[in-house]
């Protein structure tokens, strides 16, 4: 549980979780939404993965990240996103990304 709280203590990591709340994103898609180096972003993603909050799936040359399935950690994350003012806007953006993906594949 300490790893979960450590992961949630960082604003960039909470933002990443908000972006992943409605859809999966590639590492590149996530990186395009942040003003940080790729090694820094990679470190944040590894911490989220180690905490059991996200999972990574390699497809070809890309790595896609999504929220880990039902778990106490993600229940806690969902709660934090409900009370975090920054997350509301990012969750809406995540939902829009998911809708755009769905319309492209239809």
Automatic annotation (TrEMBL):
<dbReference type="GO" id="GO:0003677">
    <property type="term" value="F:DNA binding"/>
</dbReference>
<keyword id="KW-0804">Transcription</keyword>
<keyword id="KW-0805">Transcription regulation</keyword>
<dbReference type="InterPro" id="IPR036388">
    <property type="entry name" value="WH-like_DNA-bd_sf"/>
</dbReference>
<dbReference type="InterPro" id="IPR036390">
    <property type="entry name" value="WH_DNA-bd_sf"/>
</dbReference>
<dbReference type="GO" id="GO:0003700">
    <property type="term" value="F:DNA-binding transcription factor activity"/>
</dbReference>
<keyword id="KW-0238">DNA-binding</keyword>
<protein>
    <submittedName>
        <fullName>Transcriptional regulator</fullName>
    </submittedName>
</protein>
<dbReference type="InterPro" id="IPR001845">
    <property type="entry name" value="HTH_ArsR_DNA-bd_dom"/>
</dbReference>
<feature type="domain" description="HTH arsR-type">
    <location>
        <begin position="1"/>
        <end position="87"/>
    </location>
</feature>
<dbReference type="InterPro" id="IPR051081">
    <property type="entry name" value="HTH_MetalResp_TranReg"/>
</dbReference>
<dbReference type="Pfam" id="PF01022">
    <property type="entry name" value="HTH_5"/>
</dbReference>
<dbReference type="InterPro" id="IPR011991">
    <property type="entry name" value="ArsR-like_HTH"/>
</dbReference>
């Amino acid at each position: 549980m300490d790893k979960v709280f450590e992961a949630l203590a960082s604003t960039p990591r909470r933002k990443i979780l908000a972006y992943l709340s409605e859809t999966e994103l590639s590492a590149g898609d996530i990186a395009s939404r942040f003003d940080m180096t790729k090694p820094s972003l990679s470190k944040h993603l590894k911490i989220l993965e180690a905490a059991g909050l996200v999972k990574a799936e390699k497809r070809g040359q890309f790595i896609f990240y999504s929220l880990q399935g039902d778990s106490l950690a993600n229940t806690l994350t969902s709660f934090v996103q409900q009370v975090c003012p920054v997350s509301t806007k990012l969750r809406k953006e995540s939902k829009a990304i998911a809708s755009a993906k769905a319309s492209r594949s239809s």
